[in-house]
Amino acid sequence: MNTQSVLIVGTGLLGTSLALRLTDTWQVWLSDISPAAAALARDMGAGSLYDGKSVPDLVVVCAPPDVAGQCVVAAMRRYPSAVVTDVASVKQAVAKVVEEEAEDRTNYIGSHPMAGRERSGASAADRDLFEGCPWVLVPTKETSERALGLVRSVAVEVGAVPSQLSAPEHDQAVTLVSHVPQLVSSLLAGRLKDAPARAMSLAGQGLRDTTRIARSDAELWAAIVAHNSDAVAEVLEAFARDLAELRQGLAAGLPAGLSTPGRMGSVAKVMLAGNDGVERIPGKHGGAPRRYLEVSVLVPDKPGELGRLFTEIGEEQVNIEDFSLEHSAGAAAGVARLLVMPSVAQPLASALVRRGWQVPSAMNRGR
């Protein structure tokens, strides 16, 4: 069989990560409005600089949503035989440009790999970025089976889990699971700008978890949210109502304290709703979330200690379902939180104690 060829237009995080993974089986060409960015992706082993003459089988447009539509139309006109997809975070805006400006739309299919990180650019690329992540296929009414099948096969090849939605369904879904969480995280982090140093010195893993994505690229997210503004505004309005209700419940008790009706209940209502929402987040393999037990282990802040812990867990034939590491500023040890199947939690804790690890039994709990 002839090796298939793909032209990656835009060598940022997603484009370079995809190129790195496809170089094993595809002829990969790289193109970017910035020659330096394309050269960096090439030097990282993501493929060859595009010669401007060869005709690809597939074009993947990895551009922000404000320009993705125009890039898709340009690729469709230049390579009429190629399948063209884009990986923009909003789909209705791109599909609208394609519908209005492209003559033959059978070779176009929108798509969106739900993968990324707070860092951007080719230097942050990872060939395993898409492993286990959803990849949404967004065909139009005119998309051919050939186009749908080719992009689906690419998603599977890079380790993603393909699904299919319409453009409106996609944009509504990512509003809830991506766009609003990004804004809320950034709003929370913004409150830290003027926080006293003594307060910041107390920051723990909870604050790090909720503000991690606040490091994301401001220009990119401005374009994303602006092109999905109606759906985002609707969810933010509901969020604002929840905040107003919580604030009203807290303020009603001032200054009488805990004996005043409403204060405790308003907080509990928010927490219980959050508990219910978290329960709906799929497990690591998709589908319904699974119940795991958490085994906490103190890990000395020394080179090789975390690697030793993982090695010894492997020797016990235990699979780690999920993992996080909490490390307070200035502490001599971090707390590794290991999520494992309930049947192996206690045997693992006992085995780690025998091997000399400190396992605080009070920290072991279900999740």
TrEMBL record:
It holds the Pfam family PDH_N. GO terms for biological process: tyrosine biosynthetic process. InterPro entries: 6-PGluconate_DH-like_C_sf (IPR008927), ACT-like_dom_sf (IPR045865), NAD(P)-bd_dom_sf (IPR036291), PDH_C (IPR046825), PDH_N (IPR046826), Preph/Arog_dehydrog (IPR050812), Prephen_DH (IPR003099). One of its GO terms (molecular function) is prephenate dehydrogenase (NAD+) activity. Keywords: Amino-acid biosynthesis, Aromatic amino acid biosynthesis, Oxidoreductase. The keyword Amino-acid biosynthesis applies. Residues 4-280 form the Prephenate/arogenate dehydrogenase domain. The keyword 4Fe-4S does not apply. Pathway: Amino-acid biosynthesis. NCBIfam families: PRK06545.2-3 (NF005111), PRK06545.2-4 (NF005112). Belongs to the prephenate/arogenate dehydrogenase family. This is Prephenate/arogenate dehydrogenase domain-containing protein. It comes from Winkia neuii BV029A5.
